[in-house]
Amino acid sequence: MIDPLRPDPSPEWRVAPGLTPYDQALAIMEARAAGVAAGTDRELIWLLEHPPVYTAGTSADPAELVDARFPVVPAGRGGRYTYHGPGQRVGYLVLDLNRRGRDVRCFVHALEGWVIAALDRLGVAAFRAPGRVGIWTHDRAGNEAKVGAIGVRVRRWVTLHGFSVNIAPDLSHFGGIVPCGLPDFPVTSLSALGNPSSMATFDAALALTLPGFLQTLSCPVQNET
To answer: CA quadruple 44, 106, 82, 72: dihedral positive or negative?
Structure first.
């Protein structure tokens, strides 16, 4: 049981080895979120990779599933179709916004900022794009390209899901969907940008920039209506 009279402990930082099946990860994350909401479990930041899978958010349009060459799994998060697979770092955040500020927009903005700050440490100039949730950069041709996705859910003011960043995945796997419903923008990766950073290097950059992310979550609590 988490003692409400003690200072909020830092989240557990977990890095999963190998490939974690998406269904298994979803069940673990859901159970952890229920425990956090009940005050019995510690918050969690979980870094992992999945076998190839397409996940469907709550706004997924079946017309954007072009070629179901991999399993298609309802994710329960916001957003449309996305791809997860080897070479892509996925980060799941189970955080208690009752303690950190009941502001979902603040949470998403802070999450984007965290990933952008981590990529900056690796020499990747990433940015937000107005009207397009996610993490963007310029590819070698100078085009705006998506290097990371954001997809979250909040239940009882506890967050689920989080982000994915393309380190060195097979980018052809994105061809089975219209990624995030944005057909006019390419998807890129650190590898495609000519950046040799490894998964472990990116994880280290995330760890170094984590305190700043958690600090920005201290948003004013919004009154419930």
So the answer is: positive
